[in-house]
Structures are given as C-alpha cells and as structure tokens.
C-alpha cells in the first residue's frame, strides 16, 4: 500500500509517483495506468482525489484516456527539459551575471495572469543577463507578486545574489514550488533582446516560460528565459519503439 506524506496535496503525490514509474520505464508507452478505483484503494483516498491525479497527468500529456477502456501511457513519451535541471537553479559555474533591472511596478497583463493576480496588480521584476566566456548569453526575467519584495529584500538588489533569489524568496515566505508548468516557444527578438544578446536584426530566439506553484496551486514566480539561436537548450528522450519519425 502506498503512503501519503507531507503537506503536498495527495493528488500531486499520486501523480508524482505515477510519473516516476513512467519516466523509469516501469509503465512503458502503451501500458495501462491504474484506474481511479485502484488508485483510491491503494492510496486510501477518495475517488475524486484519484481522478484529479490522473487528470494532472493528462494535462501534462503523459497519459491519455480511452472512452470505455482506461488510461494509458502515451505512445510517444517525451521529456523536455530546459538546460538548467532545477527550477530557479543558480547560474552555472563560471557564468557571469549582470542585473539589468530590479524594481516594483504595475504588472503587464501576461504577468498578472500567469501569477493569478488581479489586473494592474504590482509585481516585482528582476532581469539579468547571464554569460559564460565565449558561450552565448541568455536573458532571465523573473516576476514575483509585489508583496514578496517586503519579505525578500534581495529581490531589489542591483547586484547578483549568490545561489539565486528564488531560494531567498522561498525562505522568506515559507513556501516553495511543488509544481512547475513549463512551455517552450520561439519568436523574433525584441530590440532590447538583440542589444543585450548581440544579435543581428531580425533574429529568432527560443523562449522558455515557467510558472512555479506551491502545494496549494498558488503561483510564486513567473520566469522567462530568452536564448539566442544556435544554443542547444532542449533535450528529448523517447522510446524508439513508438517513435515513427525516428525511422523516416
């Protein structure tokens, strides 16, 4: 029998356990995932909690339900990770950090929406240029609810914070991300991005967006990482037995 522990919601613990089984290969692509009834009995939770766990995996694209049949691991299981393996991780060894911006302001709608704040709420923004020798630089912009600036003074420092500001914020507010939602896209660089990244016009950039949610589903941070073209930042792993494109 599995055991529920800690303050993380039960459905997230169940979803996390299933995710580990899938990523570890114990539940292979095409394999059926335990049903709501089975999960509820195994974890000693109500069926709605088990259903919520499966739905969380469906939203991540890890499993897919078939009407009247069950829930199965998707045939093409891809794990996409941005270069830094830990959400809010400090800069890589030997990487220089230049703080370009650190202030409290009225948040753009995209940011307030991501943080789950009312329109025109104040947010704290911290933007930095990170570079390592001859390697291409990257721009990292972090937005936090404006109230966090009072609790975590390092957010408004104009110099780099050893270990990164996310750790200071987590310590100050007594909460840490339990779930991270990440999306990856591309667009043309803005004038500001071209200037800081020394790009020609026009140039495309890779954009990684991350939202860190605490155990109650409240957004703690919205982060944007801008990578210049030519820098390898995404890795994919999938089972060749189910990847038709691999054989073409």
From TrEMBL:
Keywords: DNA-binding, Transcription, Transcription regulation. PROSITE patterns: HTH_GNTR. SMART domains: HTH_GNTR, UTRA. InterPro entries: Bact_HTH_transcr_reg (IPR050679), Chorismate_lyase_/UTRA_dom_sf (IPR028978), Tscrpt_reg_HTH_GntR (IPR000524), UTRA (IPR011663), WH-like_DNA-bd_sf (IPR036388), WH_DNA-bd_sf (IPR036390). Residues 8-76 form the HTH gntR-type domain. PANTHER family: GNTR-FAMILY TRANSCRIPTIONAL REGULATOR (PTHR44846:SF17), MANNOSYL-D-GLYCERATE TRANSPORT/METABOLISM SYSTEM REPRESSOR MNGR-RELATED (PTHR44846). This is GntR family transcriptional regulator.
